[in-house]
């Protein structure tokens, strides 16, 4: 099984800013390139932070409203300082949260979710910017055709990895939802089949009505479990 990495889906021609890039130039970069954020990099192209539309809007939110009410009552001191900034260095959210090109899509998605960010600059071993990956880039996996998903599960997972007989498990895929029917030798093999199918790129969920010949989960403690094909393959 092969999984797409961050390198496969990232944007490589990244628009960047420097710490001294003026506010209005950043706004122009957004408009000219139809983007909503830019990494701020140093002289060695190492990301220092990110400036997004939200950071620019903070400038407008920090202005007095038409009735003359100040933002001081509700804006935190740190946010107020960023709202008053004139260059990318003061506007940016830092430090930059980055990804590596070899990361799996799952790794990148977990970092985005945990850090509550919409995009990650992608850096090499030296920390230099090599691309950027966004939420929409990661979602490309779910555009994968059902037929391709079914072929990978049938051939790579069930055949090449688990060495199951071709007619042991039937696979259907509809809108990324995988359904497995059939029979396997041991009961303990069922969660393994399910887990491997879930790991295939583009799979939304897995349902099964798999049955088994032997309930090896009730074997005596210390008695070795023989997964049949899995065990025979391990000896190769």
Structure report:
It contains ten helices and eight strands. With 236 residues, it is of the alpha/beta class. It folds into two domains: 6-141, CBS-domain, CATH 3.10.580; 144-234, Histidine-containing Protein, Chain: A (2-Layer Sandwich). The strands form three sheets. Strands 5, 6, 7 and 8 form a four-stranded mixed beta sheet that branches. A two-stranded antiparallel ribbon has the order 1-2. It has a two-stranded antiparallel ribbon with strand order 3-4. β1 (37-41) and β2 (47-52) form a beta hairpin. The protein is elongated, with a radius of gyration of 25 Å. The chain starts with 5 loop residues before the first helix and ends with a helix.
What is the strand and helix layout of this fold?
Layout lengths: L5 H4 L13 H11 L3 E5 L5 E6 H9 L15 H7 L4 H4 L13 H11 L3 E5 L5 E6 H4 L7 H16 L7 E6 L2 E10 L2 H10 L6 E4 L2 E4 L14 H6 L2
Parallel strand pairs: 6-7, 6-8
Antiparallel strand pairs: 1-2, 3-4, 5-6
Strand content: 15-25%
Largest sheet: 4 strands, mixed
Outline? elongated
Poorly predicted regions are: 231-236
Return the CATH class of the largest domain.
Alpha Beta
Could you state the order of secondary-structure elements as H and E? HHEEHHHHEEHHEEHEEH
Determine the N-to-C terminus distance. Answer: 19 Å
